Protein backbone atom coordinates (compact mmCIF):
# COMPACT_ATOMS: atom_id res chain seq x y z
CA UNK A 1 0.00 0.00 0.00
CA UNK A 2 1.44 3.34 -1.08
CA UNK A 3 0.22 6.36 0.87
CA UNK A 4 0.72 9.30 -1.43
CA UNK A 5 0.37 12.62 0.37
CA UNK A 6 2.53 14.69 -1.96
CA UNK A 7 -0.48 16.53 -3.36
CA UNK A 8 -4.24 16.33 -3.83
CA UNK A 9 -3.52 16.09 -7.57
CA UNK A 10 -2.50 12.41 -7.34
CA UNK A 11 -6.11 11.15 -7.17
CA UNK A 12 -7.46 8.87 -9.88
CA UNK A 13 -11.01 9.11 -11.26
CA UNK A 14 -13.49 6.99 -9.29
CA UNK A 15 -15.72 4.41 -10.97
CA UNK A 16 -18.66 6.81 -10.81
CA UNK A 17 -16.61 9.58 -12.37
CA UNK A 18 -15.35 7.30 -15.16
CA UNK A 19 -18.92 6.20 -15.92
CA UNK A 20 -20.03 9.84 -16.11
CA UNK A 21 -17.12 10.55 -18.46
CA UNK A 22 -17.91 7.57 -20.70
CA UNK A 23 -21.54 8.64 -20.98
CA UNK A 24 -20.82 12.30 -21.74
CA UNK A 25 -22.51 13.89 -24.73
CA UNK A 26 -19.74 15.56 -26.66
CA UNK A 27 -19.17 17.82 -29.65
CA UNK A 28 -16.46 20.06 -31.01
CA UNK A 29 -15.77 22.63 -28.30
CA UNK A 30 -13.83 24.82 -30.74
CA UNK A 31 -17.25 25.39 -32.39
CA UNK A 32 -18.69 25.71 -28.83
CA UNK A 33 -20.75 22.61 -29.70
CA UNK A 34 -19.77 20.40 -26.80
CA UNK A 35 -22.90 20.40 -24.67
CA UNK A 36 -21.18 18.94 -21.61
CA UNK A 37 -18.50 21.66 -21.65
CA UNK A 38 -21.25 24.26 -22.14
CA UNK A 39 -23.15 22.79 -19.20
CA UNK A 40 -20.08 22.86 -16.92
CA UNK A 41 -19.24 26.44 -17.90
CA UNK A 42 -22.86 27.54 -17.32
CA UNK A 43 -23.00 25.74 -13.98
CA UNK A 44 -19.81 27.31 -12.64
CA UNK A 45 -20.74 30.76 -14.00
CA UNK A 46 -24.08 30.45 -12.17
CA UNK A 47 -22.42 29.32 -8.93
CA UNK A 48 -20.30 32.49 -8.95
CA UNK A 49 -23.13 34.59 -10.39
CA UNK A 50 -20.88 35.66 -13.25
CA UNK A 51 -21.94 36.08 -16.89
CA UNK A 52 -19.12 33.99 -18.37
CA UNK A 53 -17.00 30.92 -17.67
CA UNK A 54 -14.42 29.14 -19.80
CA UNK A 55 -13.01 25.63 -19.45
CA UNK A 56 -9.20 25.24 -19.44
CA UNK A 57 -6.94 22.19 -19.42
CA UNK A 58 -5.02 23.52 -16.41
CA UNK A 59 -5.12 26.07 -13.62
CA UNK A 60 -1.88 27.57 -14.81
CA UNK A 61 -3.40 28.33 -18.20
CA UNK A 62 -6.50 29.85 -16.59
CA UNK A 63 -4.37 32.11 -14.36
CA UNK A 64 -2.09 33.07 -17.23
CA UNK A 65 -5.12 34.02 -19.32
CA UNK A 66 -6.51 36.12 -16.47
CA UNK A 67 -3.21 38.00 -16.07
CA UNK A 68 -3.19 38.72 -19.80
CA UNK A 69 -6.79 39.98 -19.70
CA UNK A 70 -6.00 42.47 -16.93
CA UNK A 71 -2.63 43.83 -18.04
CA UNK A 72 -0.50 45.34 -20.80
CA UNK A 73 3.22 44.55 -21.23
CA UNK A 74 5.39 46.55 -18.85
CA UNK A 75 2.73 46.74 -16.16
CA UNK A 76 2.85 45.27 -12.68
CA UNK A 77 0.84 42.72 -10.70
CA UNK A 78 0.66 42.87 -6.92
CA UNK A 79 0.78 39.44 -5.27
CA UNK A 80 2.25 37.65 -2.27
CA UNK A 81 5.83 36.30 -2.34
CA UNK A 82 4.31 32.80 -1.98
CA UNK A 83 1.93 33.23 -4.95
CA UNK A 84 1.59 30.32 -7.36
CA UNK A 85 1.45 32.78 -10.28
CA UNK A 86 4.90 34.06 -9.25
CA UNK A 87 6.60 30.84 -8.08
CA UNK A 88 5.12 27.93 -9.97
CA UNK A 89 3.91 29.01 -13.39
CA UNK A 90 7.26 28.85 -15.14
CA UNK A 91 7.72 32.62 -15.27
CA UNK A 92 4.55 32.77 -17.37
CA UNK A 93 3.48 36.19 -16.11
CA UNK A 94 6.55 37.76 -17.70
CA UNK A 95 6.70 35.34 -20.68
CA UNK A 96 3.04 35.61 -21.70
CA UNK A 97 2.00 39.04 -20.47
CA UNK A 98 5.32 40.92 -20.16
CA UNK A 99 4.49 41.98 -16.61
CA UNK A 100 6.50 42.06 -13.40
CA UNK A 101 5.26 41.15 -9.93
CA UNK A 102 5.45 43.40 -6.90
CA UNK A 103 5.75 40.90 -4.09
CA UNK A 104 4.18 41.49 -0.71
CA UNK A 105 5.92 39.91 2.26
CA UNK A 106 2.68 38.55 3.67
CA UNK A 107 1.77 36.02 6.34
CA UNK A 108 1.26 32.49 4.97
CA UNK A 109 0.51 33.91 1.53
CA UNK A 110 -1.97 36.50 2.79
CA UNK A 111 -1.69 40.27 3.14
CA UNK A 112 -3.75 43.33 4.06
CA UNK A 113 -5.45 46.17 2.21
CA UNK A 114 -2.83 48.50 3.66
CA UNK A 115 -0.05 46.29 2.18
CA UNK A 116 -1.74 46.63 -1.21
CA UNK A 117 -2.12 50.39 -0.86
CA UNK A 118 1.62 50.72 -0.15
CA UNK A 119 2.54 48.50 -3.13
CA UNK A 120 0.75 50.58 -5.77
CA UNK A 121 3.09 52.69 -7.88
CA UNK A 122 1.82 56.27 -8.34
CA UNK A 123 0.35 56.22 -11.86
CA UNK A 124 1.84 59.57 -12.90
CA UNK A 125 5.36 58.58 -11.75
CA UNK A 126 6.30 57.25 -15.18
CA UNK A 127 9.62 55.74 -14.01
CA UNK A 128 7.80 52.88 -12.28
CA UNK A 129 5.73 50.15 -13.88
CA UNK A 130 2.04 50.91 -13.93
CA UNK A 131 0.20 48.82 -11.34
CA UNK A 132 -2.82 47.19 -12.95
CA UNK A 133 -3.79 44.02 -11.09
CA UNK A 134 -4.02 42.55 -7.59
CA UNK A 135 -3.92 38.74 -7.47
CA UNK A 136 -5.08 36.78 -4.42
CA UNK A 137 -4.74 33.04 -3.75
CA UNK A 138 -7.34 31.22 -1.63
CA UNK A 139 -6.59 28.80 -0.09
CA UNK A 140 -2.89 29.61 -0.17
CA UNK A 141 -0.82 26.70 -1.45
CA UNK A 142 2.67 27.54 -0.17
CA UNK A 143 0.96 29.15 2.84
CA UNK A 144 -0.29 25.71 3.93
CA UNK A 145 -3.94 25.79 2.88
CA UNK A 146 -4.71 28.94 4.87
CA UNK A 147 -8.00 30.74 4.20
CA UNK A 148 -8.34 34.48 3.83
CA UNK A 149 -10.48 36.62 6.09
CA UNK A 150 -13.32 37.65 3.81
CA UNK A 151 -13.52 41.16 5.34
CA UNK A 152 -9.90 41.79 4.35
CA UNK A 153 -10.71 40.70 0.79
CA UNK A 154 -13.52 43.28 0.77
CA UNK A 155 -11.13 45.98 1.97
CA UNK A 156 -8.68 45.06 -0.78
CA UNK A 157 -11.54 45.28 -3.29
CA UNK A 158 -12.17 48.87 -2.13
CA UNK A 159 -8.48 49.69 -2.74
CA UNK A 160 -8.71 48.11 -6.22
CA UNK A 161 -11.78 50.21 -7.00
CA UNK A 162 -10.16 53.41 -5.73
CA UNK A 163 -7.07 52.83 -7.91
CA UNK A 164 -8.78 51.24 -10.90
CA UNK A 165 -6.99 47.90 -10.50
CA UNK A 166 -8.21 44.50 -11.66
CA UNK A 167 -8.87 41.92 -8.95
CA UNK A 168 -8.09 38.26 -9.73
CA UNK A 169 -8.52 35.24 -7.50
CA UNK A 170 -6.41 32.13 -8.02
CA UNK A 171 -8.97 29.80 -6.51
CA UNK A 172 -7.29 26.50 -7.35
CA UNK A 173 -8.41 25.35 -3.88
CA UNK A 174 -11.21 27.85 -3.33
CA UNK A 175 -13.58 24.86 -2.87
CA UNK A 176 -11.67 23.97 0.31
CA UNK A 177 -12.03 27.53 1.63
CA UNK A 178 -15.78 27.57 0.87
CA UNK A 179 -16.30 24.32 2.77
CA UNK A 180 -14.05 25.32 5.69
CA UNK A 181 -15.47 28.82 6.10
CA UNK A 182 -19.05 28.06 5.13
CA UNK A 183 -18.81 30.73 2.42
CA UNK A 184 -20.50 30.74 -0.98
CA UNK A 185 -19.06 30.98 -4.47
CA UNK A 186 -21.41 33.91 -5.10
CA UNK A 187 -19.73 35.95 -2.34
CA UNK A 188 -16.46 35.60 -4.25
CA UNK A 189 -18.13 36.30 -7.57
CA UNK A 190 -19.39 39.60 -6.14
CA UNK A 191 -15.85 40.67 -5.25
CA UNK A 192 -13.49 39.53 -7.98
CA UNK A 193 -13.34 40.43 -11.70
CA UNK A 194 -11.93 37.00 -12.56
CA UNK A 195 -11.63 33.72 -10.63
CA UNK A 196 -9.89 30.48 -11.60
CA UNK A 197 -10.94 27.21 -9.96
CA UNK A 198 -9.32 23.78 -10.31
CA UNK A 199 -11.24 20.56 -10.83
CA UNK A 200 -8.09 18.44 -10.65
CA UNK A 201 -7.16 19.07 -7.00
CA UNK A 202 -9.53 18.29 -4.12
CA UNK A 203 -12.40 17.54 -6.48
CA UNK A 204 -10.48 14.59 -7.92
CA UNK A 205 -10.82 15.14 -11.69
CA UNK A 206 -8.05 14.01 -14.04
CA UNK A 207 -7.78 17.51 -15.53
CA UNK A 208 -9.43 20.85 -15.91
CA UNK A 209 -9.89 24.32 -14.52
CA UNK A 210 -12.51 26.97 -15.13
CA UNK A 211 -12.04 30.73 -15.36
CA UNK A 212 -15.11 32.81 -14.52
CA UNK A 213 -15.47 36.54 -14.78
CA UNK A 214 -17.16 39.69 -15.92
CA UNK A 215 -18.02 40.36 -19.54
CA UNK A 216 -15.46 43.07 -20.37
CA UNK A 217 -12.57 40.89 -19.15
CA UNK A 218 -13.85 37.52 -20.32
CA UNK A 219 -14.80 38.74 -23.79
CA UNK A 220 -11.22 38.11 -24.94
CA UNK A 221 -10.55 35.04 -22.77
CA UNK A 222 -11.27 32.57 -25.55
CA UNK A 223 -8.84 34.35 -27.89
CA UNK A 224 -6.10 34.34 -25.22
CA UNK A 225 -6.76 30.65 -24.54
CA UNK A 226 -6.35 30.01 -28.27
CA UNK A 227 -3.08 31.96 -28.39
CA UNK A 228 -1.80 29.95 -25.43
CA UNK A 229 -2.60 26.83 -27.45
CA UNK A 230 -5.76 25.75 -25.71
CA UNK A 231 -8.51 25.13 -28.24
CA UNK A 232 -9.83 21.64 -27.49
CA UNK A 233 -12.30 19.40 -29.28
CA UNK A 234 -14.51 16.75 -27.57
CA UNK A 235 -13.68 18.05 -24.13
CA UNK A 236 -17.05 16.98 -22.74
CA UNK A 237 -15.34 13.78 -21.55
CA UNK A 238 -13.25 15.92 -19.19
CA UNK A 239 -16.05 18.37 -18.39
CA UNK A 240 -18.30 15.44 -17.36
CA UNK A 241 -15.77 14.60 -14.65
CA UNK A 242 -16.10 18.18 -13.39
CA UNK A 243 -19.90 18.04 -13.28
CA UNK A 244 -19.72 14.70 -11.48
CA UNK A 245 -17.22 16.10 -8.98
CA UNK A 246 -19.38 19.13 -8.18
CA UNK A 247 -22.26 16.76 -7.39
CA UNK A 248 -20.27 14.18 -5.45
CA UNK A 249 -16.92 15.46 -4.23
CA UNK A 250 -17.51 18.98 -2.99
CA UNK A 251 -19.08 18.44 0.43
CA UNK A 252 -16.72 15.58 1.24
CA UNK A 253 -13.74 17.98 1.30
CA UNK A 254 -14.70 18.27 4.97
CA UNK A 255 -13.31 14.73 5.45
CA UNK A 256 -9.95 15.77 3.99
CA UNK A 257 -9.89 18.72 6.38
CA UNK A 258 -10.66 16.50 9.37
CA UNK A 259 -7.85 14.10 8.48
CA UNK A 260 -5.40 16.99 8.01
CA UNK A 261 -6.43 18.34 11.42
CA UNK A 262 -5.79 14.92 13.01
CA UNK A 263 -2.36 14.81 11.38
CA UNK A 264 -1.65 18.26 12.82
CA UNK A 265 -2.71 17.11 16.30
CA UNK A 266 -0.35 14.11 16.22
CA UNK A 267 2.53 16.01 14.58
CA UNK A 268 2.51 18.64 17.34
CA UNK A 269 3.17 15.93 19.96
CA UNK A 270 6.27 14.50 18.23
CA UNK A 271 9.76 15.24 19.53
CA UNK A 272 11.36 15.17 16.07
CA UNK A 273 9.09 17.95 14.81
CA UNK A 274 9.63 21.53 15.92
CA UNK A 275 6.78 23.38 14.30
CA UNK A 276 3.44 22.61 12.63
CA UNK A 277 1.68 25.41 10.79
CA UNK A 278 -1.96 25.86 11.84
CA UNK A 279 -4.15 23.57 9.74
CA UNK A 280 -7.41 24.85 8.30
CA UNK A 281 -8.02 22.83 5.18
CA UNK A 282 -6.23 19.89 3.51
CA UNK A 283 -2.58 21.01 3.60
CA UNK A 284 -0.23 20.35 6.51
CA UNK A 285 3.18 22.03 6.57
CA UNK A 286 5.63 21.14 9.33
CA UNK A 287 9.29 21.65 10.17
CA UNK A 288 11.62 18.94 11.39
CA UNK A 289 13.72 19.58 14.47
CA UNK A 290 17.19 20.92 13.67
CA UNK A 291 18.77 17.64 14.76
CA UNK A 292 16.74 15.55 12.27
CA UNK A 293 18.16 15.00 8.81
CA UNK A 294 15.50 15.62 6.15
CA UNK A 295 16.88 12.94 3.82
CA UNK A 296 16.75 10.37 6.63
CA UNK A 297 13.19 11.40 7.52
CA UNK A 298 12.13 11.04 3.88
CA UNK A 299 13.82 7.64 3.66
CA UNK A 300 12.00 6.36 6.75
CA UNK A 301 8.69 7.60 5.37
CA UNK A 302 9.48 6.00 2.02
CA UNK A 303 10.39 2.69 3.68
CA UNK A 304 6.88 2.73 5.16
CA UNK A 305 5.31 3.36 1.74
CA UNK A 306 4.59 7.01 2.48
CA UNK A 307 5.27 9.78 -0.03
CA UNK A 308 5.35 13.41 1.07
CA UNK A 309 6.70 16.69 -0.35
CA UNK A 310 10.02 18.07 0.81
CA UNK A 311 9.76 21.85 0.45
CA UNK A 312 13.42 22.40 1.40
CA UNK A 313 14.93 24.05 4.50
CA UNK A 314 13.53 21.27 6.71
CA UNK A 315 9.92 22.03 5.72
CA UNK A 316 7.65 19.12 4.75
CA UNK A 317 4.18 19.16 3.23
CA UNK A 318 1.31 16.68 3.40
CA UNK A 319 -1.91 17.06 1.43
CA UNK A 320 -4.99 14.95 2.20
CA UNK A 321 -7.36 13.97 -0.62
CA UNK A 322 -10.08 11.74 -2.02
CA UNK A 323 -7.82 8.68 -2.41
CA UNK A 324 -6.39 8.94 1.12
CA UNK A 325 -8.53 6.35 2.87
CA UNK A 326 -9.25 5.81 6.58
CA UNK A 327 -6.99 2.74 6.54
CA UNK A 328 -4.14 4.81 5.08
CA UNK A 329 -4.83 7.54 7.60
CA UNK A 330 -4.61 5.18 10.56
CA UNK A 331 -1.39 3.68 9.25
CA UNK A 332 0.04 7.17 8.65
CA UNK A 333 -0.74 8.22 12.24
CA UNK A 334 0.82 4.99 13.58
CA UNK A 335 3.99 5.43 11.54
CA UNK A 336 4.40 9.04 12.66
CA UNK A 337 3.99 8.01 16.31
CA UNK A 338 6.48 5.15 16.13
CA UNK A 339 9.32 6.79 14.16
CA UNK A 340 12.41 7.65 16.20
CA UNK A 341 15.45 9.79 15.40
C1 LIG B 1 -2.25 23.77 -8.65
C2 LIG B 1 -2.37 25.25 -8.56
C3 LIG B 1 -2.49 26.02 -9.72
C4 LIG B 1 -2.31 25.49 -11.12
O1 LIG B 1 -3.04 24.44 -11.47
P1 LIG B 1 -2.48 23.37 -12.55
O2 LIG B 1 -3.74 22.72 -12.97
O3 LIG B 1 -1.54 22.48 -11.82
O4 LIG B 1 -1.84 24.12 -13.66
C5 LIG B 1 -2.66 27.37 -9.56
N1 LIG B 1 -2.70 27.93 -8.34
C6 LIG B 1 -2.58 27.23 -7.22
C7 LIG B 1 -2.65 27.92 -5.91
C8 LIG B 1 -2.39 25.86 -7.28
O5 LIG B 1 -2.27 25.16 -6.15
TrEMBL record:
UniProt entry keywords in alphabetical sequence: Pyridoxal phosphate
One Pfam family for this entry, by name? Beta_elim_lyase
* Top-rank taxon, per record: Bacteria
InterPro entries the record matches:
ArAA_b-elim_lyase/Thr_aldolase, Low_specificity_L-TA-like, PyrdxlP-dep_Trfase, PyrdxlP-dep_Trfase_major, PyrdxlP-dep_Trfase_small
Presence of keyword Cell membrane:
no
Q: Which cofactor does it need?
A: pyridoxal 5'-phosphate
This protein is called what?
GntG family PLP-dependent aldolase
Amino acid sequence: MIIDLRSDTVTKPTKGMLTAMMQAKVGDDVYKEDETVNLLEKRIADMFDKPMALFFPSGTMANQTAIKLHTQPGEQVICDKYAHIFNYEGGGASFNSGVSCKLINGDRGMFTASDVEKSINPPDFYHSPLTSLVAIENTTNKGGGACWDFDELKKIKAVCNAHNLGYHLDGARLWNALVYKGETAKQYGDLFNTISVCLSKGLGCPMGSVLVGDEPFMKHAIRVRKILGGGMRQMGFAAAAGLYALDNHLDRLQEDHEKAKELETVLTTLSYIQKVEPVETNIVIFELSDTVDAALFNKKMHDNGILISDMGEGKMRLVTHLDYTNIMHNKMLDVLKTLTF
